[in-house]
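Quick start: what a row looks like.
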Amino acid sequence: MNMIHFRRTRAVEATMAGREIAVKRYVVRLSGEERERLEALVGKGKSPARRLLKARILLKADVSAAGEGWSDSRIIEALETSASMVYRVRKQLVEEGLEAVLSRKQRATAAVARIFDGEKEARLIALACSRPPKGRARWTLRLLENKVVELGIVERASDSTIGRTLKKTRSSPIAASTGSSRPRPMPPS
């Protein structure tokens, strides 16, 4: 199944590249300043790889007097990238400008919503510091996991989420056992 998807993706990219070469809907024309900026960026080589690749694509695709004006297929082969990448970079430059191409798009929301906000975290810590259930010497992560769901603090949580949340606090029953380097208060002597 993966091979079929790969072949289909390559076929779409090849079709897109062929269409672009004929139509050139998004033509790259860089000003002298933009070109200097991209050449400096590539020359330093200290930026993330994707940013450098985009800069190289733009420099090769530039049809201005100072540019090389390479075809998409030549860019794809020389830079070992995909047709869709070249297409997206061209399109983004024309529609949004150079700054948009070189900077990463910020997410509107976090990738994964936090399970424990401040109030829920405080309730978890209070629970972890309370007396453990009868027949137990201390709270385990699994016991805490089940108890926070039972009490309706959160709908669901894994033991690793509970552990990560508690590890941030001094009152954590697991902080000492996980190599936490937070200073512990010394008992008065």
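That is the whole record. DSSP finds nine helices and no strands in the chain. Residues 118-174 form one domain.
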